[in-house]
Design brief:
- The complex is a heterodimer of chains A (217) and B (129).
- Chain A contains ten helices and no strands.
- Chain A has helices at 4-20, 22-32, 37-50, 52-56, 60-75, 79-94, 101-119, 129-144, 149-166, 190-211.
- In chain A, helix 5 (60-75) runs antiparallel to helix 6 (79-94) and helix 8 (129-144) runs antiparallel to helix 9.
- Chain B has 129 residues and is of the alpha/beta class.
- Chain B has one domain: 3-Layer(aba) Sandwich (Rossmann fold), CATH 3.40.50.510.
- Helices cover 50% and strands 15% of the residues of chain B.
- The chains are: A mainly alpha (217), B alpha/beta (129).
- Chains A and B meet through helix 3, helix 5 and helix 6 of A and helix 3 of B.
Chain lengths: 217, 129
């Protein structure tokens, strides 16, 4: 169901998307953090793109793991260990397993759990988890259903957008934004924004490859 | 020297890490292995996981290593670095829940007297009060 080609496309889309939204990410992070989220994510994704062939010529579990390792090595901010843990743990889970939708859902679960553990956080605390958790839950629904992924792509994007928007009214209790207390309310979380962009890129890549008829379902 | 616990300072800032390490050296001389690192891979403010891991390997002793960090990514990247270390080392590397400068000085003074890792970490964490 998932091919390395989809991953390659998703990586390219996400690098482009992060670059296009560099200014927005910077502004969001300047408002409630240290202002380096745009720069950090561009650096991280550029490193992944630079190593695209080397990373994606491997087995899928290693591909996913190495995306995480590259991000955590290059991002340099607090989001590095979070995105890094997400992909490294999801990749570790995939090791030796076939890529069915139930397995992918469980790999997502392993990734989300790792982010919670690393950030000592959960959803509702104005972080990227507010996008990750609803997306994971929607994918779980898909995985338990007899539906095709096409029926769920829109719903995943709606949940990612909704999750991002939900961070606006939250008060930050984690990360640099927590130092602002109530003054963090009213701003979107920059990590949630970069995470929403990531799921948009992944879904777009899946859609493209569906069009090309590469996917069985 | 290798009989003592090592101390590693991890900051977002190269200058802050270097300055804190200078203060520690002034206190304890060369009685303990002391490492420091600060800045991201481009040299700007931030942290560099590869560098942190390398410094952990250099500063670790069989007695262990106490790590002092500043905000956010310094802590999480240090946790990631511990996860990437060989298991023979990682079990004796502890991140102190302590202010970076005061904690480093207190931990270093304790380590220089030959105390075990648990005591070094406890002393650093008491520098909060």
């Amino acid at each position: 169901m998932v091919s390395n080609e989809i991953i390659r496309t998703a990586i390219r889309y996400y690098y482009q998307s992060i670059s296009d939204h560099f200014e927005l990410l910077t502004n969001l992070d300047t408002a409630i953090g240290d202002g380096d989220h745009g720069e950090n994510m561009v650096r991280g994704m550029k490193a992944v793109v630079d190593k695209l062939d080397a990373i994606t010529c491997q087995e899928m579990d290693q591909v996913v793991h190495d995306i995480g390792l590259t991000l955590v090595m290059k991002i340099g901010g607090a989001s590095g260990p979070l995105y890094g843990s997400f992909f490294m743990s999801a990749g570790k889970f995939l090791q030796g397993r076939s890529l069915e939708k139930g397995t992918i859902a469980e790999a997502l679960n392993a990734g989300v759990k790792a982010v919670k553990h690393r950030g000592k956080s959960r959803d509702g605390e104005k972080t990227l988890l507010d996008v990750m958790v609803p997306v994971y839950e929607t994918f779980m629904e898909f995985s338990d259903s007899h539906s095709r992924i096409t029926d769920y792509l829109n719903q995943i994007l709606v949940e990612a957008d909704r999750g991002l928007e939900s961070t606006r009214l939250m008060k930050a209790t984690k990360g640099r934004a927590s130092f602002l207390g109530d003054r963090s309310i009213g701003h979107l979380d920059p990590g949630a924004k970069s995470c929403q962009l990531m799921f948009h890129s992944i879904c777009q890549a899946v859609r493209d490859h569906l069009k090309e008829g590469e996917l069985a379902e | 020297m290798s009989a003592n616990v090592g101390i590693l300072i991890v900051s977002h800032s190269h200058q802050l890490a270097e300055g804190a390490a200078d203060m520690v050296r002034q206190m304890v001389g060369d009685k303990i292995p002391l490492g420091w690192c600060g800045g991201n891979v481009d040299g700007g403010l931030g942290t560099d996981l590869g560098k942190i891991k390398q410094k952990m390997e250099e500063t670790w002793t069989p007695e262990g290593l106490a790590v002092l960090v500043d905000v956010g990514g310094a802590e999480t990247n240090s946790e990631m670095a511990i996860g990437l270390l060989d298991s023979s080392m990682s079990s004796s590397v502890i991140i102190c829940d302590a202010p970076i400068v005061e904690g480093a000085i207190m931990a270093a003074a304790e380590a220089a007297s030959g105390s075990p890792l648990a005591v070094v970490v406890k002393t650093a964490e008491e520098s909060f009060s």
